[in-house]
Amino acid sequence: MSSHTSQATSSLTTLHTLLERLPEGWALAAPETPLSEAALSAAIPAITDDSRQVTPGALFVAYRGRKTDSHRYLAQAAQAGACAVAGERPRAELPTPLPETVPYWQVKDGRLAFALLSAAYYEFPSRKMIVVGVTGTDGKTTTSTLTHSVLRAHGLQTGLISTIAAQVGGDELDTGFHVTTPEAFALQGFLAQMAANGSQAVVLETTSHALDQKRVAWVDYDVAAVTNVTHEHLDWHGTWENYMNAKADLFRALRISAHKPGVAKSAIMNRDDASYRYLEPIWAEQKLTYSLRADAQATISARDITSGRDGMRFTLVSPAGEAPVRLNLFGSYNVANALAATGVGLALGVPLPTIVKGLEAVRRIKGRMELVYQGDFDVFVDFAHTPNALRETIRLAHTLVRPGGRVIVVFGSAGLRDVEKRALMGQEAVAADFSVITAEDPRTENVNDIIEEIVSGLREKGAREGDDFVREPDRAEAIATAVRLARPNDLIVTCGKAHETSMCYGEVETPWDEFAAVRSALARRGLSVD
Description:
By secondary structure, the protein is of the alpha/beta class.
């Protein structure tokens, strides 16, 4: 397990005040060891579910996980100075003895208890702001960023927590390696900083893992929006239906979240996506739909869509009227993301001209089909790491490549993650003119075995090694290979890492910078990024 320490601080929180803040019906049972007045009044510096993060006075919460049972680490947490611990097992059945002097609470659901205690520690900060949750397989970060811009254009001081970082006021804070939605204590800490900063709203990129693992339990959502739900994370969820059900928990959260004056609980759904039939029956006070098809009977749509090397142009059609939009992002899928952000804006009463202003204000999103070199050939960096995203990125690349040029794609697939998607990624890659198959966080798997699974998909579609693709397990060398092979008018797009600052080999996070790797590859050819 991992847990990231929030940079937020709470006013003096003691065990006594923490227990008092728990909602009626959620009080913890009395611990077997009586609590002294000193124990009740001592300040708690943090709450964690990671025994390695325990500091003197911290509260540790254990639960049964899929890979490990953290009850095994209760004694370690106590030795590190935990003031108290909570877990799902009876004290008499703990795998390692816990010192009698350490108070222990047995809880029914450790993950839920961790989320509740974290929210209570920071005095339920999400109740003090409008909270917009954005979920989906692809496009979450872009949709969240566009929504953030729309709400800011409306004059709302708005925070943002996304795959790239957390934006709190004028500060950009790191959320950790390979993290979209932080663990409960870190997440509530970010929300508390935003509330203390005077934020009136927050846009929270919400993953299926965060929903399934209850990291966002006790976040009081007001608007739920979805991009799409395609093939991803089946290593965790098992089936697409389970994955979809986890996503749907965001929409179900609307009913149980605290109501805020004048804010309707709203659902924003993609009429073009398979998720729609699952989400539409779920309760919401207000439902808005969006579609790229004019005949889809959606609340919001786009027509007259055109694309160019300076972005997308379209007419936004909504209940508030129509308006031309000059989106500074590439791809029709980003038009769909803009429509989702429009839905959030309309649900929160943002006027149409202000929505357009917010959409057009977004100039770039780091590592989202970002042009990093333009010369005889072009180099883009993109985060595409799912079959659907890779397909859309290659399709977009073909619209951007100059006449006579080829589309060259560099990509891999992560270790210890959805295995089924690897061959699917290979099948999608045949749409490019040439592919360089490489590493993308192999973790404890053999990178060459992962590449072989990707190659099986390429071969299934008739691609030939050497003519249509090559293997290069070293990612820096793979990018250099693509740059070396580039001819005039070609377009290279490196996929899967983008903004991420590390590459995981074994169990070690090694520093990684995709943009630096591109610059280095160009330098080897005597070229430089302006």
